[in-house]
């Protein structure tokens, strides 16, 4: 019973923006959207998270639609080192399930030279 | 600074052997998590510790799996009588503070277990 839906794979040209979509149509009001990525042979790495406002940090931007049923992770200038599997995760801010991360299969992003 | 470390990085076991996987979390991190990642899949939650207390072990697949964190720092995941379906990467993560919902989890590189 996946709570998020992501494309299996995407390509992006080096230097261009990578826009990774995620659908989470059953998200609840107290659930945050988290993004992690996993580079080959490494553990997952936190990228960003948000509730309903758009968020930006040094790694990426997160755009959440007004109805919160979908979001987009934006890597503004993709580099070869951004090649990884990107996971969109919905997680409550308290109570049952608030501490564990429930990963799906993610999107395999390939940055092409 | 030092991140989460795990050892060994690779482990090959014969079916029926017992194995022990070690996790050294970031110093001072209160919360510690174990995840299992099968080939081509995302990580799946196994268990969660807050200091030395194991607060959730609902993800452990069978009673052959046992985790401990006796002094609230280093943790060991033990698998008894390993089976081929136990072959996976075992990931450890830690986070600071007691309110884990707002704290990012820092992952180690994982231990790749292969059961022959």
Structure, briefly:
By secondary structure, chain A is mostly beta strands.
Layout: helices, strands, pairs:
The complex is a heterodimer of chains A (113) and B (116).
Chain A: E1 9-13, E2 18-23, E3 31-38, E4 45-50, E5 55-56, E6 61-64, E7 70-75, E8 84-92, E9 107-112
Parallel strand pairs in A: 1-9
Antiparallel strand pairs in A: 2-7, 3-4, 3-8, 5-6, 6-7, 8-9
Chain B: E1 5-7, E2 10-13, E3 19-24, E4 31-37, E5 44-50, E6 53-56, E7 65-68, E8 75-79, E9 88-95, E10 106-107, E11 111-115
How far apart the termini of chain B lie comes to 37 Å
Q: What Rg of chain A is obtained from the alpha carbons, in whole angstroms?
A: 13 Å
**Share of helical residues of chain A:** under 10%
Beta-strand portion of chain B reads over 45%
> What is the H/E order of chain B?
EEEEEEEEEEE
Decide which structural class fits the backbone of chain B: mainly beta
The residue ranges of chain B in which pLDDT falls below 50 over 5 or more consecutive positions are none
Largest sheet of chain B: 7 strands, mixed
Strand order of the largest sheet of chain A: 1-9-8-3-4
Overall strand count of chain B: 11
Give the structural class of chain A.
mainly beta
Total of DSSP H or I helical runs spanning 4+ residues of chain B: 0
Can you characterise this structure?
The complex is a heterodimer of chains A (113) and B (116). Chain A has 113 residues and is mainly beta. Chain A is built from no helices and nine strands. Chain A has a five-stranded mixed beta sheet, with no helix packed on it. In chain A, strand 5 and strand 6 form a beta hairpin. The mean pLDDT of chain A is 93. Chain B is mostly beta strands. Chain B contains no helices and eleven strands. In chain B, a hairpin with a 2-residue loop joins strand 5 and strand 6. Chain B is globular. The mean pLDDT of chain B is 94. The interface between A and B is medium-sized, with 23 and 25 residues.
Features:
heterodimer, A: 113 residues, mainly beta, 5-stranded mixed β-sheet, 4-stranded antiparallel β-sheet, 0% helix, B: 116 residues, 7-stranded mixed β-sheet, globular
